[in-house]
């Protein structure tokens, strides 16, 4: 429960979320979402919920990013909007 | 994957990393009683180690490790392990999933609960691994060639 560490994690979460929403290249968006997920796992662990943080790190940062990359290879890489 | 490039460095890294992830997945499953983790997280780690080989080496090399048609029976076997343990406990005189009533002779109730939770978590891990690998295979192969 070091509040400076949590503040830094919050700032990085905001930056990665905004970049993931605004960027045109979808592969960058997927990587940013993976970073968002991993930082959320760090935040869960810092708050004491180790089990939730473990699940978030494995599913959000590992498997879901892989699924999104595999889906990107089947579709287009640029957004239309 | 259709447009994958053979890269020996990436493949070597994936081959080096994948067995350790798999061992860590089994460690998480087997230590699920008294530490963070359990069947779901361990199964997701097992799936991550399988998917790493599939991404790095392509469909042919991934099929050498776990074939595509094996996923469906493994998922069903995991569910059967879970449900069968609960049903055996129910038939032996307890409630459904009452591990203390499992009919293993010569073991007291505390160890029976320990073993019951272990069996159930192995079933959960197998199902989660098989379903995640199945989702990846269905994404990659698509719907036009089945």
Quick gist of this model?
The complex is a heterodimer of chains A (81) and B (146). Chain A is mainly α and 81 residues long.
Describe the protein's architecture and organization.
The complex is a heterodimer of chains A (81) and B (146). With 81 residues, chain A is mainly α. Chain A is flat and about 40 Å long. Chain B is mostly helical. Chain B has four helices and no strands. Chain B is elongated and about 60 Å long. Classes of the chains: A mainly alpha (81), B mainly alpha (146). The interface between A and B is medium-sized, with 15 and 20 residues.
Major beta-sheet overview of chain B: none
Give the terminus-to-terminus CA distance of chain B.
15 Å
Low-confidence stretches of chain A: none
Number of helices, where a helix is a run of at least 4 consecutive DSSP H or I residues of chain B: 4
What structural class do helix, strand and pairing data of chain A support?
Answer: mainly alpha
Structural class of chain B: mainly alpha
Q: What is the H-and-E element order of chain A?
A: HHH
Sequence of secondary-structure elements of chain B:
HHHH
Most extensive protein-chain contact, per-chain counts: A-B, 15 and 20 residues
Residue runs with pLDDT of under 50 for 5 or more positions of chain B: none
What best-fitting shape of chain A do the alpha-carbon axes yield? flat
Helix content of chain A: over 70%
Note the main attributes of this structure.
heterodimer, A: 81 residues, mainly alpha, 0% strand, B: 146 residues, 4 helices, 71% helix, elongated
Write the layout of secondary structure elements.
The complex is a heterodimer of chains A (81) and B (146).
Chain A: H1 3-22, H2 26-46, H3 50-74
Chain B: H1 8-30, H2 39-65, H3 71-91, H4 109-141
């Amino acid at each position: 429960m070091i509040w400076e560490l949590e503040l830094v994690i919050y700032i990085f979460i905001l930056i990665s979320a905004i970049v993931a929403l605004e960027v045109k290249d979808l592969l960058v968006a997927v990587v940013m979402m993976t970073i968002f997920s991993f930082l959320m796992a760090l935040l869960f662990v810092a708050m004491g919920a180790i089990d939730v943080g473990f699940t978030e790190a494995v599913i959000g940062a590992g498997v879901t990013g892989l699924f999104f990359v595999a889906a990107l290879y089947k579709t287009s890489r640029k957004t239309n909007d | 994957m259709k447009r994958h490039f053979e890269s020996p460095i990436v493949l070597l890294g994936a081959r080096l990393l994948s067995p350790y992830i798999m061992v860590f997945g089994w460690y998480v499953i087997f230590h699920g009683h008294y530490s963070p983790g359990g069947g779901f997280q361990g199964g997701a780690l097992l799936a991550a180690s399988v998917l790493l080989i599939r991404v790095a080496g392509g469909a042919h090399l991934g099929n050498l490790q776990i074939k595509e048609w094996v996923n469906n029976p493994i998922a069903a076997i995991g569910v059967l392990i879970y449900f069968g343990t609960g049903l055996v406990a129910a038939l032996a005189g307890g409630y459904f999933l009452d591990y203390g009533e499992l009919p293993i002779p010569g073991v007291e109730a505390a160890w029976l609960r320990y073993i019951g939770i272990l069996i159930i978590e192995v079933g959960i891990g197998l199902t989660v691994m098989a379903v995640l690998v199945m989702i990846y295979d269905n994404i990659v192969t698509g719907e036009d060639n089945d």
